[in-house]
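assembly run, all chains below
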Amino acid sequence: MKHQNVPVSQDQMLMHKLPRRAFLRYAGFGSIGLTAWMMAASCHKDHNSSPSAEEVTLGSGDVGILNYAYALEQLEAAFYTQVVQTPYSGITDMELSFFTDIRDHEIAHREFFKAALSTQAIASLQFDFSSINFSSRSSVIATAKAFEDLGVSAYNGAGVYLQTPDYLTLAGKIVSVEARHAAYLRELVMTDTFVDSDVVDQNGLDLSRKPSEVLVIASTYIKTKINSQLP
Amino acid sequence: MNMYRIFRAIEEIDPEVYERINTRREAMKEFAQVGKKLSLAALPLALGAMLNKAYAQSNTSASVVDILNYALTLEYLEATFYSMGATQGSALIPNANDLTAIQKISADETAHVNFLKAVIPQLGGTPVNKPNFDFTANGTFADVFSNYQTFLAVAQAFEDTGVRAYKGQAANIMSNSTVLQAALNIHSVEARHASKIRLMRRLNGFSNSVKPWITGNDTGGIGSSVQPVYAGEDNTVQAGVQITGIGGLSISASAASEAFDEPLDMQSVLAIASLFIKS
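ok done. output:
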């Protein structure tokens, strides 16, 4: 929906100008629009704090969403870089080969966002992987599975907030690769769990998470404070 | 989710809302009917669809309906294919775990069919009928339901096509965020299926190179019969950014192509699907 990333102040201005019924036509295309409108009523205007080494600010609109994706790709790339650098004991040739592929995909995603965002890109984040035992297969594949499922739900949840069609298509190009990773890693953990009910509902729909939900989950592994005004 | 609260909130802004969706009781009844057929996750979509019917100009949803009917056609194709495959049981799929996987995919595709059939009328559209299929593609895959290797090859082509098809329409349904959300949530499930099918082909020894992701425009050892499915997948430039060697890092052209799945337009997808559609 086009209007969702209009800064709240503009949104409110629009609301004053539109007759009630016209506003409903504008907001009522779907429940997500409705939710965004309900939330907009209680939101404050975006404020920008200057980023430092300890914190970053994602920004608003499409830039905010792209920086959010950039943050998640930084997390994944850092994790897989470590996995490939110090492979767990008993890793098979195929596993190492696929983990190396996945690492390269995540680095490609990270570097793409960095290049695309250019001067608007957030700084490099710092990570805390102390809760992960990189020498243990079960620890690594469980974490990898969690990251990939989180990534899929994050892209699925962020798509509706993008205003620019090309960015939506780009997010689509990435999310299906994350879903390929997720399914593979779930199969490593246990056979035939690639579409289990914790990620796919009875309508055959994958999970979506709002940026705010994702950032809370990811914060376990991210030392840098992320300032976000995203939903 | 408290539906009454949402209805009340709408009433406050537009007291005449029920003149657009009959009476409040009718609206709740209509919604309850829909609710019986759909899971909780689908309810916001159905509500959005109802509001759409009430407020949207009638011409705005036409193309969205067309796209959903296009998706439904592809889901019919997949659902029918997996259902027929699973029915063959161990005669076609010797490995018990593989059979379970095919049954799970079959259930997802059938769920997608039912979901789309329930949603399209809510947007004022009529779901298309199920076509008659020829999964041998006029003899190209003659042993598709008796040779497991052929079956998985066709499955891979269907899943990878499905991923590209949904991806190709995302930007065309941005005007309806509830539909977009659902399409995105189906899209990634198709990618999960594709990954699993590709892994099964590898682990069954049907290809010693196929991976869960798509490398270049490689068919994963299937060959020219499915080449159109992978046309353009070898792209390594995204939004004007060359991904190969990006940032001075050793990202190969293979990895660069694998890292981004490519969309496919409706015409190309239908050209592929039509090989399997009799009428």
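The domain at 59-223+263-274 of chain B is CATH 1.20.1260.10 (Ferritin).

Chain B touches chain A through 83 residues (CB under 8 Å).

not gonna interpret more than that til we talk
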